[in-house]
Amino acid sequence: MNYDPNRDHIVTYQYNYHVTHFVTSAPDIRHLPADSGIEVAFAGRSNAGKSSALNTLTNQKSLARTSKTPGRTQLINLFEVTEGIRLVDLPGYGYAEVPEEMKRKWQKALGEYLQKRNCLKGLVILMDIRHPLKDLDQQMLEWSVDVGLPVLVLLTKADKLAQGARKAQLNMVREAVLPFMGDIQVETFSSLKKTGVDKLRQKLDTWFNMPPEMSEDHPE
Ligand SMILES: Nc1nc2c(ncn2[C@@H]2O[C@H](COP(=O)(O)OP(=O)(O)O)[C@@H](O)[C@H]2O)c(=O)[nH]1
Ligand SMILES: [Mg+2]
């Protein structure tokens, strides 16, 4: 699947994210489609800019609905880039008006999803560049590192800061994730200015090119 004889000078296959389409919504992780293929999930606090980032990545105006009302999307939305290659839009966390009980349930489900979903090969965590690394963001990082899941942190709405402040914030977050001791890359992102999209695509390509099962069955 990765080898294209006409493009063999290119190391990784470039997926065309523009043809991404909606597949299904699931109310919780127990109702997800079969655990096969490769999945990359997008997570973040409500209003972090997750839907906007998915729309920017796929160059579609309303693939993932963007909303000024935080916490509206409570379903897990699944999109397919191509057969067996999926992007998963997880419900935003940290929405103040959600009852405690629901919050706890959802956090538990999130943890389970990260731990148990075999086809999950990478996690994109979106954080507003002005308010990064809130408690639940850190919890997500911790869970991911625990299960050996690589993470791309996107500091969103980077257009809201001037260049100096943006760089300072990027460096601060890069330092702050070091103690987690995981495979965590941090980049700035702006859906408004379309910056950071290349970094996101590169990372997704890398994850989607990983063999669905590591070579336990086929030792070299
Ligand atoms: N300035 C700016 N605003 C953004 C950017 N991305 C998202 N927003 C705004 O932030 C709000 C929340 O975005 P949305 O994508 O719905 O966040 P979600 O709740 O994480 O899915 C909306 O009003 C967006 O227009 C960005 O890159 N720059
Ligand atoms: Mg959203």
TrEMBL record:
Pfam families: MMR_HSR1. Keywords: Cell cycle, Cell division, GTP-binding, Magnesium, Metal-binding, Nucleotide-binding, Septation. GO terms for cellular component: cytosol. InterPro entries: G_ENGB_dom, GTP-bd, GTP-bd_ribosome_bio_YsxC, P-loop_NTPase. GO terms for biological process: division septum assembly. One of its GO terms (molecular function) is metal ion binding. The keyword Metal-binding applies. Its cofactor is Mg(2+). Residues 36-210 form the EngB-type G domain. Necessary for normal cell division and for the maintenance of normal septation. Belongs to the TRAFAC class TrmE-Era-EngA-EngB-Septin-like GTPase superfamily. EngB GTPase family. This is Probable GTP-binding protein EngB.
